[in-house]
């Protein structure tokens, strides 16, 4: 079973973030993806009603290539639709184009009402 949720467990956040990004989480809250009850990925978000940022999303190296990152990212965007006026990805990646994001300088942005979820989700 796959689940995700926010946690302020600093030990868990730092351990998972370090395993993925080689540095502890810079903040208090991590959004953790669990696969069969075991932490598999972490995301850092900054959420406000006006503008929410996807700062980074990562999956443990041993679990990459199985679609968990795609599932995790789609789930995070789905949550943000109802809580913010604008979603910003703090880096440029063609991955976000299929959802309707447009590039603005060194970021990707979208009005949540224009977010499109393609049918294909690569989770195995």
TrEMBL record:
GO terms assigned for molecular function:
acyltransferase activity, transferring groups other than amino-acyl groups
Record InterPro entries: Acyl_CoA_acyltransferase (IPR016181), GNAT_dom (IPR000182)
Q: Which CDD domains does UniProt cross-reference here?
A: NAT_SF
**Boundaries of every N-acetyltransferase domain copy:** 1-122
For this protein, the record's Gene3D superfamilies field holds: 3.40.630.30
Q: Which domain of life is it from?
A: Bacteria
Recorded hits in SUPFAM superfamilies, A to Z, give: Acyl-CoA N-acyltransferases (Nat)
The name on file for this protein is GNAT family N-acetyltransferase
Ranked from the top, the taxonomy reads: Bacteria, Bacillati, Bacillota, Clostridia, Eubacteriales
